[in-house]
Amino acid sequence: METIVNKVSQSGILTFNLEEYFDSSPRIIFDIKQCLFMGLILKEKDFREFIKTHDWLQYQSKNVSIICSADAIVPTWAYMLIASKLNGIANYFIFGNLEMLENALFQKALASVNIEDYRDKKMVIKGCGNLPVPTYAYVEITRLFLPVASSIMYGEPCSTVPVFKKKAL
Prior knowledge:
The protein is α/β, with parallel strands linked by helices and about 170 residues long. Helix content is about 30%, strand content about 20%. It folds into 2 domains: about 5-25 and about 115-165, no CATH class; about 25-90, no CATH class. The strands form 2 sheets. The chain has a 4-stranded mixed beta sheet. A 3-stranded parallel beta sheet has the order 2-3-4, with helices on both faces. Helix 4 packs parallel to helix 5 (about 135-145).
């Protein structure tokens, strides 16, 4: 009987799964449009009253995208006031749409990766999964690994697409 050898496990290839860095906290949009007079104008007095009386606890442990979906000029300080109220309540918040929020969450998570742990390693960035990992995260982890990894591939260890291979000196 012939022995089956797992060549993938012997190859020294490390798999990096971006799904492990997915923040599972709910995402929510805070649209400042709800605070505009006639959907066009932000009245400071009314807005400050809204800020005081709004139920900010509804954002507890959530990731918040702050936007204005109306075609209105909103002063920067208005967004800053919202941020000051979300601070300490929301899990994370940004100014921008949900795609930008997702990218920011991955950027924050990937900043914790000790890149030196992958120096001179053959890396496979795991593709296909169950969670919505944005393309941004794949590009960002590639950017981080390029200076240290000996090679970077995409997919699964048994079936990869070459992305980068360090040139021999």
